[in-house]
Each structure stands twice: as structure tokens, then as C-alpha cells.
């Protein structure tokens, strides 16, 4: 497969939007040389923010059966994901999420491969850019391997097909899928190096800090089900970033919610690849949220009022028209730590962290502490709280993929669409997205996923 065909259009468009910073040498080619060139290359938020997001459609968080007009209005890919079809895309179709993430990896590789040899900057300036690019590359590989490959399993990861692992800025590179274990090893290597280079604080949440690298290491260890190290990485993250926004301070005026670029909870700002999607909340999730939870009050809305459709819709993106954040947050790190504590038998420590978070998610008179009689109950309570806190960020897809490896936690997902019932078993091969048809067409040698 020629990587040029997959990403060159996106990459050249990214460079063109920053055309002021480059020399044209030779004619028609954009060659960054000075350290500031690489800074501007990484500043291209339009190209470097969007990633994944469609995965929420395969979870128990969404439901589209409340209104026939809602069912008829979904796009084909959304319908195929929601109804667990073997074929998601049209024949020879592209996958925007795959394309976007590999385009970002190319930009990251340009910086990683070249910035330390650039001119006009200090050694420290170059190291900071290198750290940013390593975090960007690792984040995208984390998403790609957890979307397009099987869930990490230590017993099979060395044999399971992962994703193409491109580490050089070579538009003509031939790609083959690397084992899941190799992709994870590279992610960890990139993030550990990034953590050693990045500063404690940055100008905004788009630019990664030490906390960003630690948070992504935390996510990586969590998906590996390496809970001891996931807890350590959560602690490392929370040492640098620990602020939780009290939703009581914004509920009267939702437009006063901080922008993600400066939001105190956002550790590394990333955007959903399917912004402003129509997402109607399932009765199961609504029951979990209840009616007093300020996350429901702020981030959902009556579908009849907003879209003239029966049901409850996700409204978080429409408060002031901001694409939803899929990057790691302070509450997410608290929830990871709580899960790890529950798994290690510390039920009180786990529930204590949940209550610390939930105190800022309810009005004072409507708040009540949670409790758990056993570590197993505490674990289930933590997983429920992850659904409440992280809904519509695709986190539930990754959680299901991970916990389905455990018989006690495995869950069958059942969706109803146009009066038909569709079922996704815990061990379904459909949890690994298909390699995009266009990629398979370009490179017949790449191994497709079993469906």
C-alpha cells in the first residue's frame, strides 16, 4: 500500500494552510527548515485535532428507535455501525477517521524525524516540539490499534494483527500491519520519551504537557488491562492536573462552560471525527443518569424541542457549537484510579474518589454519597460512573472492548432499528473495525479483519 495515496491530499492541504512559514525548495515542494516552521506545522488545529468518534454507535449509550423519522434520517455508515453489519462502508469507500489519523501521524513523523536538525531554534525549543509530535503520534496509534484491531490480550498480542506502523515521513512507504504488541510497545516508547521532554504546563490544552503524556500512558495501560501501571500513570497525571469543574457554577448559564482549549479538566484536547452527529441517548443510559445529574441537565436535551424528534438527544456540542472533546480529562483519570483501586480490593478508596467527583455533578441538596459492600460492587459502580461522565466520547466502546475479556463484566449489546433486533456479542469480531475498502484495494497484501 502506498501511504502517499492515503494521506498526501490531507497532508498537503495541511501544509498549504500554513504556506506563509515555508520555503518552496524545490519548486512545488514545501520544505520546513527552521525550528519555527515545525512549530507552525504543529499549530494546524484544523487538520491535527479531529480523530475518532463513530464508535459510540456500537455501544449501549445510544438508541434510535424512539422515532421513525430519526431512523430514516441516519446516514448509511451510521446505520451499518448501529446495526452491527459486517460491511460498514460502500464498496471502495474511504474511512475519514483512518485517513485523518494517518495524516496526523505523517505530520508528527515530519517533526520527529527532522526538528532536532532544524535551524534557528534553541535545543529546548526543539525538544518541546519533539515531545508534542511524539504525543500526537502516540495518541493516533492508540486510537487506531484499539479501533481496527482486536482488544489487547497479553496471550495473543504478539500474533494479532495490529495496524500499519509508520515511523518515517516517507510518502512512498510500503505498509504492512504490525502485531498489536509491537504497536503498543511503540506507543509506550513515544509517550515515555514525550513525558521526559514536555513541560509541566503549556499555553493551552491543545499543546500537550507532561500530564498529557502520562494520561495517554494511563489510557494505554488501561487498555492492556495492566491495572497496577494504569493506576501509577493516573497518579502521575493527577500530580500535574487535578481540577474538577463544579457544574453548579455553569448550570444557570451553560454558555459559560469553558472552551476546551482552556477547560480546567481537559488534559489533552482532541476532537471527535464525526462532529455534530445526531446521537439519541438510550433508555439504559438515561436511567443511569437519572433526572438530577447535572451532566444530564447540561449535556442532553428533549429531542422534540431541539429537532422535532421523539427522544433525548446529546446536546453537549450545541451549547455553543463546539466539537466534543475525546482527549483525556481529569475526571477520566480519577475514574481510572478508582477502577484500579476497586480491582485491587480497596472498595472504600474507589467509592471515595467517585463521591469526590460526583459532588461537583449534582446540586448540593440533590447529592447523595454512593457506597459499595464489596470490591466487585465497587468495580461495577465505577464502570457505571464512567458511562455517566464520558458518554458520547466513544470511551464506552473502548471500555466494552476491554471488559468483555472478563466473563463477569462481559455484556451483549442489543439494538432495535426499524422494528428489527440486532445483537453484538461480547466476543464479536465486529469490535475490530474493517480495514477501509480503499486501503485494501490499493494494497491487496494487507490482511483484512475477519468479520
TrEMBL record:
UniProt keywords (A-Z) are: Cell outer membrane, Membrane, Signal
Q: Where is the RagB/SusD domain?
A: 332-449
Signal peptide coordinates: none
Q: Which InterPro entries match?
A: SusD-like_N, SusD_RagB_dom, TPR-like_helical_dom_sf
Q: Where is the SusD-like N-terminal domain?
A: 77-220
Mainly localized where? membrane
One Pfam family matching this protein: SusD-like_3
Q: Which GO terms describe its cellular component?
A: cell outer membrane
Where it sits in the cell: the answer is:
Cell outer membrane
Which family is it part of? Belongs to the SusD family.
This protein is called SusD-like starch-binding protein associating with outer membrane
